[in-house]
Design a protein that fits this description.
Length: 160
């Protein structure tokens, strides 16, 4: 074998050895190292998640009261600014509505009273009242006449 062939053989054996080492390394990584790394990553992820949640919860609790105070102050300020304007607008709106609707309201009330009085049977009411007055008057006249005239049975015998 010549020197060039020996060189090619050495290179081929080195290349085969490198490929075999690479294949064995890949298999060892897939079967042993990777599952261990994934288990460690999962444990690390759980620890990291717990720390983040604890930190976020503590930060949220710390920020909650200032946030409530800011919101309360903001709402009070907005209400303080808007309340007079809302009152003025409502008052103006009620006055305008009352001005527009008052004549119609008065007319409806007037119609209601007229209908209520008209629904009473005025003729019947007057008729009953007149009968009662006549009965009472005739009874009074009869009583008065009975007092004025003496009946024979009511007369007392003369005094002797």
């Amino acid at each position: 074998m010549s020197g060039g062939q020996w060189f090619m053989l050495i290179v081929a054996v080195a290349l085969a050895s490198s490929l075999a080492t690479l294949a064995l390394g890949w298999l060892a990584f897939q079967w042993w190292v990777r599952p261990q790394l994934e288990a460690q990553w999962a444990a690390f992820a759980d620890v990291l998640e717990k720390r983040v949640k604890a930190g976020a919860g503590a930060a949220g609790q710390e920020l909650l009261e200032p946030l409530r105070t800011q919101v309360r102050c903001g709402v009070e300020d907005a209400a303080g600014e808007l309340l007079p304007r809302i009152r003025a607008e409502l008052t103006t709106g009620f006055r305008e509505a009352a001005t527009e609707n008052l004549p119609a309201f008065r007319e409806e009330v007037r119609k209601g009273f007229t209908d209520a009085l008209g629904s009473l049977n005025a003729g019947d009411l007057l008729d009953r009242t007149a009968r009662k007055v006549v009965r009472t008057g005739s009874s009074l006249v009869e009583s008065g006449l009975n007092l004025l005239r003496l009946r024979p049975e009511d007369q007392e015998p003369p005094l002797r």
